[in-house]
Amino acid sequence: MDKPQLIDLILADHARLDQALAQMSTSQMTEAGVQDTWSVKDILAHITAWEARLVTWLQAAARGETPTRPEPGATWDDIDRLNEETYRENRDRPLHDVLADYHHTYQKALKEVEALTDEVIVNPERFAWTVGRYPLWQIIAANTYEHYREHLEAINNWLEKGKKRV
Fold this sequence. Notes:
By secondary structure, the chain is mainly alpha-helical. Helices cover about 65% and strands about 0% of the residues. The chain has one domain (about 5-15, about 35-165): dinb family like domain (Four Helix Bundle (Hemerythrin (Met), subunit A), Up-down Bundle). Helix 1 runs parallel beside helix 8 (about 145-165), helix 3 packs across helix 4 (about 80-90) and helix 3 (about 40-60) packs parallel to helix 5. It is globular. The termini are far apart.
């Protein structure tokens, strides 16, 4: 994976998600039950929260710091708790606010990725906090295009079920 490939995947999969969103009404985007109890709006808030974490990690890495992942005071065992907190914090927010954050945070994440060099993206030895585990591109992928795909699949499955309703 190199930087142009990574950026192409981010752009393409985000565009697919945006295309699906553009075809949905406000009521569809706020209806619960798309993915478990989450609505599309809740999914977008969730994606945004993880992209915001990614931005924080990349900014810390650019400063030569070790990012606190997933976030200060949390471990990877806390992912379900973090996701639930994101849901609770955003469930009553207006759709237009969630959409604005979704678009803004995506642009910030894309800008951070575009600022990286190929060496930073592909070298698993570049950062002490990734040594022996994975190159940075895998962290970026998990919080961008792979994440979009995961949730777009759930959205599409939900929409398909809705078409079959009478």
